[in-house]
Design a protein that fits this description.
37% helix, alpha+beta, 27% strand, ten-stranded antiparallel beta sheet, single chain
C-alpha cells in the first residue's frame, strides 16, 4: 500500500501520497509503459549492460554462440534483445506470462507483436493483445501501480548508477502456498524486491516482507535455512559461491529482512571462469548438477 500521510486542515483531512524515491533510469522503465496493469511479479534484465561487461559479457557470448549477430536464431532473445521485462499474472492460480522486449537497434523480432519504439511482446496471447493496446495508449500500464513502483525504487540504492537486474513481487495467500511448495520454504513473504548490478564487482540487494512480527521471525529463519541449503549444493561450491553466501549481510528492519550479497572483482572473475568451464564441458556440468 502506498505510503500515505494525513494532513489536517480544519475539519477536513485528505490523504497525501508521498513521492516515489528518485532513482537512476534503468532498462525496464520504458518497457513498463507497455506492461498491462495487474502483474504480480516483474523481472527486468538489462542484457545490453550485461553484454558490455568485461566479465559477464563472456558468459552471454558463450550462451549465444560466437557469431551472435550473424547467426540469429528465431526466439533467441539473448541475441536479439537489449532488455527484457518478464511479467507474471495470477501467481498461485493459473499463472500467465508476458515478456516485453527492447530489441537491439535495427533488429526486428519475427513472430513477436510490436508495442512501439522497437519494443515487442511475446507470451500469453491475451496478455500480448493487452500489451499492444496499452502500448497504443489504450488501457492502464504498470506505471500506474504506485505500490509496486515504490517497492521497486526502495530496494535500489540511491547512489546506484544503473541496474543489471531488478525484480519485484507481491504474493497473496494462494501465491504464497504455490511458491512454498516449489522452493521448500515453510514461510513465504507477502512481497519481495531485488536489485543487482555488476561493474567491476557484483552487488545484489534483496528484501522480503512478512505479514506480522511472528511471520517475520519465521521468514528470517526460513531464509537462513535456504541459504545454508544452497551453499551445500555441489554447483554452488564448485563456482566458489558458498563462502560469499555464508558471509552475506542480513539486515532486519520492522517486518522486512534485507540481504546484501557482494562479490569482489577477483571472486567474480573466478566464478565467471568456472561457469564458462561448465558451459563448455557438458560432462563436467552433469557432474555438478
Amino acid at each position: 500500500m502506498a505510503l500515505v500521510s494525513q494532513m489536517a486542515c480544519g475539519a477536513a483531512t485528505e490523504p497525501v501520497v508521498s513521492p516515489l524515491p528518485e532513482r537512476a533510469t534503468t532498462a525496464g522503465d520504458g518497457l513498463l509503459s507497455a506492461a498491462p496493469l495487474g502483474a504480480d511479479l516483474i523481472l527486468e534484465v538489462d542484457l545490453a549492460r550485461l553484454r558490455n561487461n568485461a566479465v559477464v559479457g563472456t558468459i552471454l557470448t558463450a550462451l549465444s554462440g560466437p557469431d551472435q549477430r550473424e547467426q540469429i536464431v528465431e526466439g533467441d532473445l539473448l541475441t536479439q534483445a537489449d532488455a527484457l521485462l518478464v511479467c507474471v499474472y495470477g501467481i498461485g492460480d493459473s499463472a500467465k506470462q508476458l515478456v516485453l522486449v527492447q530489441a537491439m537497434e535495427g533488429q526486428e523480432l519475427s513472430g513477436a507483436a510490436a508495442v512501439g519504439e522497437s519494443r515487442y511482446a511475446v507470451g500469453d496471447p491475451e496478455l500480448v493483445a493487452r500489451a499492444v493496446a496499452v502500448g497504443a495508449g489504450q488501457g492502464e500500464s504498470m506505471l500506474t501501480d504506485v505500490e509496486l513502483l515504490r517497492l521497486r525504487a526502495d530496494i535500489m540504492p540511491s547512489e546506484a548508477a544503473g541496474a543489471a537486474v531488478r525484480a519485484v513481487a507481491r504474493l497473496d495467500f494462494d501465491a504464497r502456498v504455490a511458491v512454498a511448495s516449489r522452493v521448500g520454504m515453510s514461510e513465504v513473504p507477502i512481497s519481495l524486491a531485488l536489485w543487482g548490478d555488476v561493474v567491476d564487482d557484483l552487488a545484489i540487494v534483496a528484501s522480503v516482507a512478512g505479514e506480522s512480527d511472528v511471520s517475520y521471525s519465521r521468514l528470517a529463519g526460513a531464509l537462513d535455512k535456504l541459504r545454508v541449503r544452497m551453499a551445500k549444493r555441489p554447483l554452488i561450491r564448485y563456482l566458489g559461491l558458498a563462502s560469499p553466501l555464508a558471509s552475506a549481510r542480513v539486515i532486519r528492519s520492522g517486518k522486512s529482512v534485507k540481504v546484501v550479497f557482494l562479490l569482489s572483482p577477483k571472486r567474480l572473475a573466478l566464478v565467471a571462469e568456472r561457469l564458462l568451464r561448465q558451459l563448455q564441458s557438458p560432462q563436467q556440468s552433469a557432474a555438478h548438477d
